[in-house]
Design goal:
CATH superfamily of the largest domain: FAD/NAD(P)-binding domain
Number of helices: 16
Radius of gyration: 26 Å
Helix content: 10-25%
Shape: globular
Number of domains: 5
CATH topology of the largest domain: FAD/NAD(P)-binding domain
Mean pLDDT: 93
Number of strands: 37
Strand content: 15-25%
Distance between the termini: 36 Å
Low-confidence stretches: none
CATH architecture of the largest domain: 3-Layer(bba) Sandwich
Structural class: alpha/beta
Length: 704
Amino acid sequence: MHRIERHPILPVPDRRRVAFTWKGLKLDALEGETLSSALFAAGVRTFGRHHKDGAAQGLFCANGQCSQCLVLADGFPVKSCMEFVREGVRVEPVEGLPELPRVDSRSAGLAAAKPIETVRVPVLVIGGGPAGLSAAIELGKRGVGTLVIDDKHRLGGKLVLQTHRFFGSIDAVFAGTRGIDIATRLENEVRSFPSVRVWLRSPALAVFSDRTVGVLAEGRRYVQVVPEVLLVTAGAREKNLAFPGNTLPGVYGAGAFQTLANRDLVKPTDRLFIVGGGNVGLIAGYHALQAGIAVVGLVEVMPECGGYKVHRDKLARLGVPIHTSHTVVSANGREAVESVTVAAVDGKFRPVKGTERSFDCDTLLIAVGLDPVNEFYDKAREFGLPAFAAGDSEEIAEASAAIFSGKIRGLEVARALGRDVGEISPDWYRTADILKSKPGATFAERTPEPETGVFPVIHCNQEIPCDPCTAVCPNDLIEMDKSDIRLLPSFVGEKAGKGCTGCEKCVAICPGLAITLVDYRKDREFPTVAIPFEFLKDALAVGDRVTVEDTDGNALGRVEVAAVKAIKANDRTVIVKVRAPRAFAKKIAGLRLQPPGTADPLPRYVERTADDTVICRCERVTAGEIRALIREGARDINEIKALTRASMGACGAKTCTPLLHRLFREEGVPEEEIVDQPKRPLFLEVPFGVFAGRDGEKDPHGRE
């Protein structure tokens, strides 16, 4: 079984086993698990075949937004990433177009449609992630009637996938606290307000011209919600890439990977390769290592990674090669990913012939940016429904920024309803802007000169919004200008006659694992260096020899482990102490984790001869088909849609539309000449029986 049995951060609960069958073979799932996770845990990666060309289909978004993971459950097509395992459910692959079970209408009879339920509420919040929960808390404090809906089975959004400590302000947005714990805090506070209701497994379907919002409530009944004000905090969707082999099972996004590994404790891969050096890709790589997965490498098309340097540095120190100015050329394999080929790019980001290298891997993780989920907000504005947006639905930024923008928007919504909220401080808006800011300037690392006593070495040398280290020092020896938490912190040595005591609190709390503590008090020639370590405590033992590295991942030497310290106060961050020569003790920033050779390329690069780059995953429309139409003069995506079926699939054109625009750009067509297709009136597919009022409690597929 491909399950994570032990994890350095996440508890592994003891859950009841649930039996189901896959192609007639009896398998075991765990209670509360989705079908897709249960299949991955059993080693199944291919969920069916496309009716057009027989291509293998597998998990892609794991978010209910596409149909790549479609399976048949007791004969009915369902998205396996959203369908929970039920005792005895018969699961089969979809081979071509699914056929619905035959129903004898004479014996079944015709049931009359039931009236549609209508719910009126002052505020409807679409999305129970960091922004939506923070807004609901502000509304709840003021007794404003609020309904929070979310399409998942628990609140928190992407917070429930984040095992790392958060950046930002320790006072304003829980900086220094792990995302999974922030989700629990926010949920508990939201549920403490009588005026706030929560509907889980309840996706919004559409905003209509009569200013109502269609909702698939609790996954089983259709409800029209009539809000006075709509707040959209639906988050973001991942961008995709077009390259040969891009739809092979094993090519999917960071969200899908983190859902499997961090939410469901499934080990979805043995060898992972990452495309994209933003925070999403860098963090996913770190999460993979925590789950015991080899990370073979990461490519970033730009000369530098776009994410926080501390994220990049800790990945490099752990032994993951980061190939900047590189791109993916192809994913290779017949039925699933077996290797990936990458190449260097020129000044116009085109692959350079002769620089190709291939790497053995079974999963290619795409992390090349996010697009706001803002369709509901745009429609509400179009139809005159008072609407606000917060978090990624407003602007793509870090989750800490989403938390704070949600607080502000909650107050603005309350004020729009006539509640007296007073003046919203200009400092709040400034804090929000700081939290949204991109990484700033990078400076040369500042190493303290003294070689006596004990003191922290701060390996954080890029301006990012983060201040936890300044709040935990008992003697206030780490300082920064609090008017702008993007400025670098500094160690002041002594203050009011007090110096560093070696308490290690700054080492444990740093979200970037960018602080070490050097102690010369026992041995000036071989000082002890305390290093943060977020892996299993028993991965290292006293007396082990380990490779220590500098900030950028350059090996400094082999040293002996003197102590491995895991205490409750450090919140699952282990402190590893090593004895190191004075010559490089202050340069030590981390330990190498992956063994040598893990990331070596294959002897020869693998060339994918078939140009099967797919733009529309749902309808299997290739880049070549669309380029031909563009070169013939097509400028209207509706025309391309009519001729090829591109953007007609179950994802509602969410995945392929950005790629269609990219093809136009590559063919030299200006954006102003492109005519977009209309947005789908429904955000996702819904069984017809649900609209007829058939309760899905007895039958999860809306049948009677």
